[in-house]
Amino acid sequence: MIRIYLDWNVVSNLKKPDFFGIKDFIELNKHRFIFPYSQAHFSDLMKSNKQDNPYFQVDLNTLTSLAGKHLLCYENGMVTPKFGTPGMYYKDYDDGLDNASLFDMEANFNLFDEMGREMGVEDIGTHVKKIFDAIPSLIEITDKNKDTMKLFFPGLKEGATQWDVFKESGFLLGRMLEDRIYYKNLRKTISGEGFHLDRNSGNWNVEDVIDNINKFLRNIGLDKDFLGFMDYIFELRNENPDDMTYFSGCYSMLDMMGYKSDKLPKTTDTAMNIYTDAHHAYYAGHCDYFIVGDENLAKKAKVLYKLFDVKTVVLHPSEMVQKVGEVMVDFSVENIGFLNAAFELIKRGMDFKEYPELSENGSRHVSYRLPAFYFDFFNYVSWEEYPDKNALLITFKKRKRNFSKFYYYTEIESIVRLVVSFFDRKCDFDLENITQDIKNGKEVSFSIMTDFGLVALNFEEVDGLKRPQLVYVVSVKY
């Protein structure tokens, strides 16, 4: 199945006439797509959770219809697939969360004291706080970095402790997320200090943005590139960020520096809007496509995808029907005709690579990146010719091109159903038992004899993840 992440505005706009063409396309091909949802969708949805807003339930129903049970959840430092409908997620969602309080370190450690007392441990938060307060921060405020320090940590003094850094970081993040004016003024102050990109930066080619930012940083006297600067910021905060925090920090820094900055036009807008958009971009980086109408979000996502070598394709909603339609393979032709169609697809392959070191007895080994998703899943193919055996071995594979380190079982189930239903004309396989094995986490493999040879579905382990691969063994004369 083709994994597509829809930005919240696209989900919400599906009820409008301008989006009916997209809605019809989705309904027609829904069995070939997965539309995951994430906590970021709920951050946007809950803004409309008011008694006088009739569209809240409409949007929740739309999200449920699209996503089914496909949730992207961030835990233990990585995105993992979970199963639960948006309706189930909504029941457990805490909309009363005070974002500012999350970053009030004094309050949080006082809460630790209360929790400790309930467990029979006195003043656990106070003891931990004393430990941090006894450790020097090792942050040296110099003539070279004092302006940067003043901007981001205005209350930090010479000789500060680790506890002082925690408090300052919490204050900065809390105010940014809750106070729209504070964030805009902070961005303006930073700009006034010369930490602002060329006003024309929004027109830069996406391919050139990071290189141009690196030049900008050198021109203002920093001996760091963009990623080096981000590492430096996290070091100042004594923070070892996980992947999503680091990605979100990079996204926010692009905004802070003036690259496609969010205008925050509504009085209800805060830096939380930017934070949520960063999460949308990160979650979408685990999918094949990111459909987004917000130009600022789209451009920043493209820049960071290039920086982190993520091949997720960013599309405007108006491009979705055509562009996604182009990578959907027609399964209507049978057997030999089907094989010829596969050959034609391979001929259009890209990133050709030959492996002469594998060749022996006249054999030839090459690989291609496919221009479409074969069986709505496979994106690479290896082609192995064995003239001495009158055999051709074609192996379709899924190669990692984004952040994803997982598959939903529904993706594997879909491949199995497609392959079995297409090739197993005699119904020799118990498809329901096979799909039940997949749901139970069992590794499934099978082979089917066809008019042109053998079809086999098995798994290969790559980077710790077992990936399905589809193999054709074709009898040919050389």
Structure description:
- The protein is α/β, with parallel strands linked by helices and about 475 residues long.
- Among the domains are: about 1-95, no CATH class; about 335-475, no CATH class.
- The chain is built from 20 helices and 14 strands.
- The strands form three sheets. The protein has a seven-stranded antiparallel beta sheet with strand order 8-9-10-11-14-13-12, covered by helices on one side. The protein has a four-stranded parallel beta sheet with strand order 2-1-6-7, sandwiched between helices. A three-stranded mixed beta sheet has the order 3-4-5.
- The longest helix has 17 residues, at about 160-180.
- Residues about 95-100 have low confidence and may be disordered.
